[in-house]
Amino acid sequence: MIAKRAGAIGILITLVLLLFVIRMAWLQLLPSHIPTASPAAGGRDGWKRMAVVQRQRSLVLDTGRGDFLDRNGLPITGETYMTVVLFPVRPDVRGSQEQLRKLSELLRIPKEELLHRWNGMTQPDFWREGTGKENPVRLTDNQANAIKSLGVEGVRVLPYRNRYLPQFDAKHLIGFTSQHPEWLMTAHERDIAQGRRKLTEQVGGSGLERSLDGLLHGIGETSVSYFIDGQNAPLHGLDLRVVQPNNRYYPLKVVTTIDLAMQNEIEAYADAMGLQEGAIVVLDARNADIVAMVSRPKLKPGQFNSNDGTEWRNYALTAVEPGSIYKLVTAASALEYGVVNPKEKFHCDGHYGRYGLSCWKEGGHGDLTFQEGLAQSCNIVFATIAERLEAEQMERTAEALGVMERVGWHSSHGFGPFPQPLRLLQEEEAGRLFASRGSGADGGVRVQSGIGQRDVRMTPLQAANLMVTLINGGRVMEPRIVSEVRYASGERMVELPARKLPVAGRSIRTDTAMALLRGMEAVVDHGTGRSIRAGTWQLAGKSGTAETKKDGAALNHQWFAGYGPAAKPRYAVAVLAANRPIGSAHQATKLFRGVMDIAAKHVHEPRGHGHRF
Ligand SMILES: [Zn+2]
Hints:
Layout: H1 2-28, H2 46-56, E1 58-62, E2 67-69, E3 77-86, H3 97-106, H4 111-119, E4 125-126, H5 141-150, E5 155-164, H6 171-174, E6 177-179, H7 181-187, H8 189-193, E7 202-204, H9 207-211, H10 213-216, E8 222-228, E9 234-243, E10 253-256, H11 260-272, E11 278-284, E12 290-296, H12 327-336, E13 346-348, E14 366-368, H13 370-375, H14 379-388, H15 391-400, E15 410-411, E16 422-423, H16 443-450, H17 460-471, E17 477-478, E18 482-486, E19 492-495, E20 499-500, H18 510-526, E21 540-550, E22 553-564, E23 571-580, H19 587-599
Bound molecules: zinc ion.
Zinc ion is lined by residues 348, 359, 361, 364-365, 378-380.
C-alpha cells in the first residue's frame, strides 16, 4: 500500500518535471526579438516575459569559444582583461555627484557625456572607447582598483575575454566570427532546440573560424545577469549573478602550424614594401606545414563583422594565372615523357613563328639548352616542348605534382572528433591546366598553356607546395595548418598528422625533380632571378609574370616561388603580387628575397618530423 502510494507520487513528480522541461525547452525556442517588457505585467505571459527580460539583461563576458595557438604555444586569439560594465540603474540611486565626477575622470570622459550615455541605456553594456563600437575599454590595474573602491551603484569592474588581440595578424587565415541566427537555425536546429547552442552566439564566418566552428563554439558562455525592479532600481543592491560553464575540458585550444613571430614580421614587411594585392606563403620545406600565410588587401580593424566579401578573399588560396611559374610543370612533363634531351640545343630569335607567340626577351636568347631555357624563362623553348607533348601527358604531370586539385590538409571521412569530411582551408580553389578535357588537342592551346597563360590557374599555396614536392623528390604533401587540438586541461584531443596527398597516377621520378631544382638554382645564380643573389641564404626559385585583366584593363600578376637554403632547404615560399601595372618593377622577386631573409631568422624543427613518415 505504502509502496503503491510512493509510486503514484513518483509518477506525479515525474509528470510535473516533464511539464517544466517542456516549458523550458519552449522558452529556449522563443525568437530573440520579443520586445522587453516588465515581468510585473504579469498574466499568463508573465513567466515567459520574465525569462526574456533576464536573458536580455545579461551580458556575455566570455563566449567560451576555443582559441588558436601558434606552433610555439603563443596565443593567436584570446586574452582576458578588466573592463567596466554599466547597468541601467535609475540616476538617483547611482551615487553622489562627487563619485560620478571621479568616475568620469577615471574613464577619461567628460561627466556630461558619461551621464548622457548612461541615461540612454536600456540594458547593461561595456564602457567602450570612441563612438561606442570599439572593444570594451581596457583598464589598468590602478584604474580597475580605483573604480571598484569608488562604489558607484550600477558600475562594475569585470573580466572580459577579447577574441582578437590588438596585434592580431593572420586575419585571412584565422577568419572572423559574427552572429548568424538564420544559419544556426537551419544547420544546428537540434542543438538549438536542446539548448546546446544559442541563436545569439558568434559563429565562424571564414577561415579556420568557419572550418572548425563545430569544435570551437564550445559548451557555453560566461555571462553576468542582474535583477532590478520595475523602476530600474537595484533589488537588494545590484544583485549580479555570473553564469559560467564548469568543465575542465573546454574551451578547446587549436594548435596551428603558424610561427606567429615570423607571420607578424612578414605582415609588417609586406606593408613596408607596399604589397597592395596578393599573397605570401611560407611552408616548411620538409613536411609542407604552413608556417606563415599573408594576404592583401589588408583588413582594417573592426571589419570582423562585415560580410561583404572581397577583403576577406584569401589570395593565398585563390587560383590565378601563374605565368612562367608553370614552366616548371611543363619542364617536368617534358623530362617524364622524354621529349627533350639535356644536351639538345634550342634556338630563340625572339619569335616562335606560330600562334603569334614571341619571347619576352626582344631579339631572343640565341642558342640555349633545356636547363638554360628554364633559367632564362625562354618562351620559345617551352613553346617547342609543349607542342611536342600530348595534352594528356601535360595533364598527368600536373596531377602528379598536385597543382590541379585542392592540396590543403583534408579528410574525406570523419576524423577523430570531426564527424564529417573535414577541410581546414575551405576557401582553397583547385588549380587548372585546360578549360576542358580535349581542348589541349590544339597546338596553340598547348603552347599558351605550357607557359602558364590561357586557362591555367594556380594558387600561391599550390605554388609553394610544388617547391616542397620537388624538394622531396616528387612526393606531394598536404599542407597542414593545424597540428593538434588540445583540451583546456592541456591534454591532447586529436592530432592531425602531416601526410601525403594521394595523387592520381604515379609520382614524378626523383631525377626529374632533381633536374628542376638544378634549373631553379640556375635561375637565381645567373638567370631571371639573379637580382636576389645576395642575402642570408643562397636561394633557388622561379619567377613568373602572367598577363591578366581586371575591369577590362591589362595588368600583370608577378610571381616568385622558390626555397632556401638552396643546398639544404628549410622553407619553401611563394609570392604573388597581383594586378600590377604592366612594365612595373618585379615586386614578387624582391619580396621573395626579403621574406627568405626573415624566415632565416626563424629556423626551428618541424613538428613531429622524423617519426611520422
Ligand atoms: Zn627566348
